[in-house]
Amino acid sequence: MRFVQFYVPGKGKRLGLLDGSTVTDITSNQFATVLDVVRIAAERGCEMDEVVTECSQGVEFGYEALDVTPADGKPHLLLPVDAPEVWGCGVTYLRSASMRDVDSEQDIYSKVYHSDRPEVFFKATPSRCVGPNQDFGMRQDSELTATEPELAILLGRPNQILGYSICNDVSAWDIERENPLYLPQSKTFEGCCALGPCVATNSTVSNPADLEITCNISRGGKTIYEGEANSSQIKFTLEQLVEFLTRNNPIPVGTMLSTGTGIMVPNEFAHQAGDRVEITIENIGTLRNGARHLT
Ligand code: DO4
Ligand code: MG
To answer: I want to staple 128 with a disulfide (CB 3.0 to 4.6 A). Which of 51, 124, 133, 262 is the partner?
Structure first.
């Protein structure tokens, strides 16, 4: 199943199920958000699909009509889940390690890539996240902010993978490169994390360890960069990444863990305001966002 959250004028936030090109509004007294479904699945120790099997069918919307730039007067997609915490994993793909080492003074990234412990860092809270078709932020003090297209895991209980989404781990690479101790400033800021367009559950993503990930960046209507990776190239299993995140680290129900990027956008395609980014992951969908300067 694919869960979405969307806004309808006069009604507010709605919970929907995406099937093909149709979104069915399944908002009820029992669950009004994806986080409600996650909480019930965590409590019962079951899949999210099982939580909604008996819900009555509601009003239908065309997905394309929802996948539009947010405006108060029009229905539109929202963040797929208001994850109380978003965490990230780093240098989980060889490409991420080798390209970062070229621009850093020591081989710290390769050392982490070849170590038994992955990099895990705090990324965002809901107020720092943007949903489909919203602009992500570029810090005022960064001239090299880049897209990092990643598969994200949605957790119920600490060891319960309930579903998947797409994350753009937008990062100020120049700040991170100046000194690795500046990593939190390179990773966490207003609009630093784009998520969406849906949460695809285990029944829809049957093999998360083999998903094609593609990215297209365009400027002024023209493609300036295209890249691809496959989640099979992640050095750890997804369960191992979750285990490292949750080791002696209590996480709230509904936490998202982004699994690192295998697509390293060359420095020459550092973002400019107005860039458009499309990230597609097999079985999940396409996340579209723009880039904007923070003031
Ligand atoms: O330390 C650098 C961050 C790595 C990262 O975010 C990634 O590999 O995706
Ligand atoms: Mg990343």
So the answer is: 124
